[in-house]
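fyi for ur records
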Amino acid sequence: MFQKILLASDGSSDALRAAQAAALLASRLGAALTVLHVYPEHMDFPPGVEPAHTYKDPAARDQEILAARAAVARRIAAALEEQGVAGATREAKGHPAEAIVAVAREENSDLVIVGCHTMSGIKAFLMGSVSDRVCHHAPCAVLIMK
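which gave:
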């Protein structure tokens, strides 16, 4: 059924649940798994990670951002290892939904798994959700984990 699974991860708790589901599915189905980390064009911290302090040196801030991103990747890898699954890892820059859909097309994915961030009110109306956009534009099935 699903032979190529794309897991989109931003390091949030929702993404960690999505990683656990992706690992379980990949393990049971014998599917190939690709983990995609999407970052903004500019250097920024992953969701839920705040800088340790204010930086006067941009290079020091960038180093902390890279360390935070590496920690996110390690958490996702650990969730996969618990199920005995190894996944290829990719990074992309840009708008998360656009990058996820583009990589799903490029990799001919059968299934995209994403976490669901709960937004409400005006923020949800103005921004829309990444999972909603992926669901509407992906070339394959989409599983949204809450």
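Strands lie at 4-9, 32-39, 88-93, 111-115, 141-145. thats all i got for now
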